[in-house]
């Protein structure tokens, strides 16, 4: 059985991206301590109904496993944690501990990435380069379509429900189609210069 603790949030964590967390609830302080001690994963899921501090919260069934890549004791007394998204997962069943922490039996949803980026999506790489520079991020040289899509979804000002919808799509090609349509709707594509043709 593949069981992990859940961290419900009002934001979406994507594979290969980071998320800063401020931890103050005892159930999550204990969860983070256990994950750090055992070098284990937890799951970040988007809240469908309810509050982050609530005990009775409805969450989406697809989320992202996370590992702790950094932590600090903040000046405000809270524990600051940087979570790194690892893989998509689906919740199969859940149960809640006495302290309010929810544990979930999950199934990992694999992404079959390809280093070959279809020609019609080459502009996404240009867009990612542009946004990365603006955000002060360094983009890795070797990235497949899935990873490029996750980076764009993370960096673009998209509605959180759309980010969740894109996370849930099982195929990278289908995810690219939806994001492409959204970029057209936002008028982003017209600002991307086409690559110079040879000859």
Brief characterization of the structure:
With 199 residues, this protein is α+β, with helices and mostly antiparallel strands. The chain has helices at residues 26-38, 122-135, 145-155, 160-168, 172-186, and strands at 3-9, 18-23, 42-49, 58-59, 62-73, 79-96, 102-109.
Helix and strand layout, with pairings?
Layout: E1 3-9, E2 18-23, H1 26-38, E3 42-49, E4 58-59, E5 62-73, E6 79-96, E7 102-109, H2 122-135, H3 145-155, H4 160-168, H5 172-186
Parallel strand pairs: 1-3
Antiparallel strand pairs: 1-7, 2-6, 3-4, 3-5, 5-6, 6-7
Describe the structure.
Residues 195-199 have low confidence and may be disordered. The protein has five helices and seven strands; from the N terminus they run E-E-H-E-E-E-E-E-H-H-H-H. It has two domains: 3-109, Roll (Archaeosine Trna-guanine Transglycosylase, Chain: A, domain 4), CATH 2.30.130.40; 119-191, Methane Monooxygenase Hydroxylase, Chain G, domain 1. With 199 residues, it is an alpha+beta fold. Helix 2 (122-135) packs across helix 3 (145-155). A hairpin with an 8-residue loop joins strand 3 (42-49) and strand 4. A five-stranded mixed barrel has the order 1-3-5-6-7. The chain has helices at 26-38, 122-135, 145-155, 160-168, 172-186, and strands spanning 3-9, 18-23, 42-49, 58-59, 62-73, 79-96, 102-109. The radius of gyration is 18 Å and the shape is globular. The longest helix is centred in the C-terminal third of the chain and has 15 residues, at 172-186.
